[in-house]
Amino acid sequence: MDDEREQNKSAPRFLALPRTGLGWWSVGLAAGFLVFMCLFFLQIHSPGRDRSTFFSDPINALLLISASASGIGGGVVALFAVFLKRERSFICGPIVLLGLFVLLFTLGEVGGH
After folding, report:
1. Is residue 60 assigned to a domain?
2. Does 104 have pLDDT greater than 90?
3. Is residue 101 part of a domain?
């Protein structure tokens, strides 16, 4: 009976927190994406700035580039964590989807205009 409990404790759990370093890095980068996007939306509503081009307001440009880099980076790191380090945490799945969405949105914005 005790052997079964010890095996269950060491078994990776699907709904648990990440167990690998790459899994935690992907969570941190996804959290950074959320922070940068919140700061971007707070900054964009401040009045009195010229925003005729993307780089007219360098703070907004820096926040948006940082958000997209952390979102895409989080997705890539989550993929590495899942396939290379055998991370089985559920949290990595939505982070991969977030990275894919940010990548597709970025490519659409750069190539679509």
Report:
1. yes
2. yes
3. yes
Confirm whether 67 is domain-assigned.
yes
Domain extent for 100: 19-44+54-107
Amino acid at the residue 21: G
- Alpha-carbon span 44 to 27, nearest angstrom: 26
Residue closest to 54 by CA, chosen among 106, 2, 1 = 106
Quickly list DSSP for 46-85.
Answer: -SS---SSTTSSHHHHHHHHHHHHHHHHHHHHHHHHHHTS
In this predicted structure, the answer to whether residue 2 has a pLDDT above a threshold of 60 is: no
Q: pLDDT (tens digit, 9 = 90+) per residue, 55-96?
A: 888 888 999 999 999 999 999 999 999 888 888 888 888 999
| Residue pair 70/36 in contact by the 8 Å Cβ criterion | yes
Global pTM value: 0.81
Q: Report the C-alpha gap between 9 and 11 in whole angstroms.
A: 6
